[in-house]
Write a structure and sequence with these properties.
Elements: H1 2-10, E1 14-18, H2 20-24, H3 43-46, H4 49-54, H5 56-70, H6 77-88, E2 91-96, H7 102-105, E3 111-113, E4 116-123, E5 129-130, H8 132-136, E6 147-151, H9 160-170, E7 175-179, E8 198-202, E9 214-216, H10 220-232
Parallel strand pairs: 1-2, 1-7, 2-3, 7-8, 8-9
Antiparallel strand pairs: 4-5, 4-6
Helix pairs in contact: 6-10
């Protein structure tokens, strides 16, 4: 740990790469339910382009449920520490696979959302912006297009601007903190390994990888609190 803290302290361009495990510690409600299904549907079939076009009412109901559940969720201490490090100039940015918006809610400003944000609502046809309430109420756009959240659905490409920006940032990085991801969802999972840099991996399911110098099988919030205290010590 001491060696790791010194590596963080001496880094010139530190980035964070976060996945679902980062948000789990904020006690996100499980929208799938006890059976792993949502109203007898696999969530992956509802979070899809096909559902948007062919089963819109169920698509809207599914995302309304998810978006309303997020209203009771707050960033945890780990989110807040990353925002603090950014403000202090230690952390240059966060690349995230999460759509919750919790990094921004914690105060982080330089966030690259690889899979979009569930907190944004827009028209599928003309991309005009709308409020969450408009979506919940089942309103259509003035162009008659369906409203949808700004997440990347199954069957869609990643937002190219966010992906390009992430690659640009990674080309400058000398260290990356990989937090709460299985490193199995591609193409995002390849990003931390595109350029030579020091890597640290923190997750309850973290596993050894010859490309990663530091592996910590721990909860992210308490771990980052410990690191923050050591940096201040």
């Amino acid at each position: 740990m001491k060696e790791f803290v010194e590596a963080v302290r001496s880094s010139n361009y530190l980035l964070a790469f976060t996945g679902a495990g980062m948000d789990t510690e904020s006690n996100l409600p499980d929208f799938r339910g006890p059976s792993g299904l949502w109203k007898n549907h696999d969530p992956r079939t509802l979070a899809s382009v096909e559902a948007l076009h062919n089963n819109y009412e169920l698509f809207r109901e599914f995302y309304t449920h998810r978006m309303k559940n997020l209203r009771g969720v707050s960033p945890h201490r780990g989110h807040e520490i990353l925002a603090k490090w950014e403000e202090e100039g230690l952390l240059k940015g966060i690349i995230t696979q999460n759509v919750s918006g919790l990094h921004r809610a914690a105060g982080s400003k330089h966030v690259m959302e690889l899979h979009g944000s569930i907190r944004r609502v827009f028209c599928q046809h003309c991309e005009k912006e709308y409020s969450e309430e408009d979506f919940f109420e089942g309103k259509s756009c003035s162009c008659h297009g369906p409203l949808r959240p700004g997440v990347t659905l199954f069957g869609e490409a990643l937002p190219q601007e966010a992906f390009r920006h992430a690659v640009e940032e990674l080309s400058q990085a000398d260290m990356i903190l990989i937090l709460g991801t299985s490193l199995e969802v591609f193409p995002a999972a390849q990003l931390p390994f595109m350029y030579p840099m020091t890597r640290a991996y923190v997750d309850l399911e973290a596993y050894a990888d010859g490309r990663i110098e530091y592996v910590f099988k721990e909860k992210i919030g308490p771990f980052l609190e410990e690191v923050d205290r050591a940096l201040e010590g």
